Prior knowledge:
The structure holds two protein chains of two kinds. In chain A, 32% of the residues lie in helices and 26% in strands. Chain A is an alpha/beta fold. Chain A has two domains: 10-226, Rossmann fold (3-Layer(aba) Sandwich), CATH 3.40.50.300; 236-306, 2-Layer Sandwich (Alpha-Beta Plaits). In chain A, a hairpin with a 2-residue loop joins strand 1 and strand 2. The longest helix of chain A has 16 residues, at 176-191. Chain B is mainly α. Chain B has one domain (2-259). In chain B, 66% of the residues lie in helices and 2% in strands. Chain B has a two-stranded antiparallel ribbon with strand order 1-2. In chain B, a hairpin with a 5-residue loop joins strand 1 (141-142) and strand 2 (148-149). In chain B, helix 7 (151-180) crosses helix 8. The radius of gyration of chain B is 20 Å and the shape is globular. The model of chain B has no long low-confidence stretch (mean pLDDT 89). Chain A binds chain B through residues 55, 58-62, 79-80, 83-84, 86, 88, 90-99, 103, 106-113, 115, 156, and chain B through 2-3, 6-7, 10-12, 89-91, 93-101, 104-105, 261, 263-265. Chain A: GO terms for molecular function: ATP binding; ATP hydrolysis activity. Chain A: InterPro entries: AAA+_ATPase, ABC_transporter-like_ATP-bd, ABC_transporter-like_CS, P-loop_NTPase. Chain A: Keywords: ATP-binding, Nucleotide-binding, Transport. Chain A: Residues 12-243 form the ABC transporter domain. Chain A: Pfam families: ABC_tran.
Amino acid sequence: MTAAAAPGGLAIETHRLSKHFGQRAAVDGIDLAVPRGSVYGFLGPNGSGKTTTIRVLLGLAAADHGDIRVLGREMPRELAGVLPEVGALVEGPAFYPFLSGAANLSRLDTADRHASPASRRRRVGEALERVGLAHAAGKKVHAYSLGMKQRLGIANALLRPRELLVLDEPSNGLDPQGTREVRHLVRSLTEGGATVFVSSHLLAEVEQMCTHVGVMSAGRLVAQGTLNELRAAGRTRVQVLTPDAGTASRVLAGLGLEPGLPEGSGARPAEALVWAELARPGVEPETIVAALVAGGVRVRGFSVERSSLEERFVSLTGEGFDVVG
Amino acid sequence: MASELTVLFRRLRTWAMLLALAAIPILIAAAVKLTSRPATPGRGPLFLDRITQNGLFVAVTALVVSVPLFLPLTVGVVAGDTIAGEASLGTLRYLLLAPAGRVRLLLVKYTGAVVFCAAATATVTTAGALAGVALFPVGPVTLLSGDTIDVGESVVRSLLIAAYITVSLLGLSAIGLMISTFTDVPVGAMAATVVLSVVSQVLDNLPQLDWLHPWLFSHYWLGFADLLRQPISWTSFGDNALLQAGYIAVCGAVAYGKFSTKDVLS
C-alpha cells in the first residue's frame, strides 16, 4: 500500500532509541530491524522494556533519543498516516465494560477517521468471526472472561487489513487452544503479506511461530537475528565418556580443540567425561570419533550437545526472577 | 462524535445522574404541595414562595437550588472523566492507536461534556415544568420587574434560563477537561473539579476579595434573574458568556499543551 513497501525493506527500524523514566533508562539505545513479512519475536523477561519500546514505536510515548521508522515512514511525525496501517494490541486489551463486544469494536473503529462507516458492521462481524467470538458479539464486555477479552483485543487489531501487526503478549490469559489459534492466526496474517511483531516472555511461543527474534534485557537489545542465527550463536560441545581420559584429551587437542578437564566420572570410577567446545570449522563430530578411535581411545559414550534456545535466552538475559526495576 | 455520545449515554451512571437531577424539582414541588403552611417570602431558595401561586416557578426554583452544587457535581463527574476515564480503562491508548488524533479526541470529549451540560439543565427544567403543571395552578407569570407575561412567553424565559446555566457550566467543563489530562485517576479529576467549583463560590462570597470576583467562573452563575425582567437585560448573559469563553480558551490551551505531548502509559 505504501510506496516505501519495497520487498526486503524494514517494517520497523530504530536507531539508538532510548526512553527514560526519571533517572532509569527503560529503553537504552536499541537498534531494531524488523524485516517486512517476518514474524518478529520480541523476547525478554518482565520489565525488560518490551512494552515501553512498543509504546514509543506507536507514538503513545515520546522517545528521548533516537530515530524511528515504521513502514518506511518517520515516527511520530507521520503518525496519522502510519497508524491506520498498524493493528495493535498493547499491554493487554482494554474495553468499555458497559458496552457489548461488537459495540466496543465499532467505537474504536469510529475513532479512526479513515475507516469506512459503510463497511463497519461487516468488518466488525468478520473480525469477531476470525477470533471465534461471533457468538458473544452482543454480550457486554464485563461478562467476558480474560481470554475472551484478549481475543476481542486481537479482533480490534484486525478490524482493517493491516501491513503491520504489533501484538504485545497475545497469548496472555488464553487457554492452550487459544494459544494455538493465535499461532494459526499469525501464520495466516503473514501469508497475506503482513509483518507481525510479537512480544513475549515465553520462549516456546516465540520459537514456534517466529522467523526473527530480538532479545531484550534491562532495556537493551542483547541479540537480534533470524531464529536460526540465534540458535547457531549458541555453543555446541562434544562429550566423550571414556576410561582413557588423558589420551582422549590429547587427541582432542591434536584436532585443535580445547578439551576441558575431565569432569565427574560416569557410572564406574575409572571412567571420565572429557568435553570440548566444537568451535573450529571443519571439525565435525564424526571426524572427532574417527580420530579418537584411531588414537586408541576406548569410547564408551559420545554425545554432541547443542545449547538450546532456552539456555541461550537465559545466558543473554540472566537467570532468576529478579525484575529489573 | 455520535460514538462519543453513545458511550456517554449508554452508561448507567449518566442516567443515574440525570434521574437525580430530575428528582430535585419533583421533591421541591412535592414538599411545597404537602406542607399546608404557606412559604414565607424571603425564606428558602429564591422564588420558592411563588410556587403555590404558579407552577411554572418550580423549574426556576429547582434551577436555583441545583446551580451551586448539584449541577457542578454532575458536570464535574462527566468533565473529569473525559480523558482520565479513558486512561484508567486503558481505552485511551486504543483510541490514540486507531488513530483518533489527540486534538480531535480532546475536541470530541469536550463537546460530549457540553452536550451533558445541556442535557442536565434541560432535565431539571423539564422535570420542574412537568411537576409544576401537575401539582399547581398555571397562569400568567409576574416578572421581577412587575410586568406580567403569558404562559407561552414564560416557557421561552425558562428555556433562556436553561441556556444561561448551560453556558455557565462550560467554563467548569473546560476546567474538568484540563484536570482530566493531568491524571489517570478519574475520581481524582472529578473531585478536583467539584472542589474548584465550591472554592470559586466561596471566594465569590468573601467581600475582601471583590477585585477577584469578576474573574471567578462561578461569578455569574446565579445572574439569570436578569432574564426575568421586562425588557430582558442581556448584560449578565453577555458578561457570563465572555467569561466562560475565556475559561474555555485558557483551560483548552493548557489541556492541549499537556495532552498533545503526554506519554500515554496507562
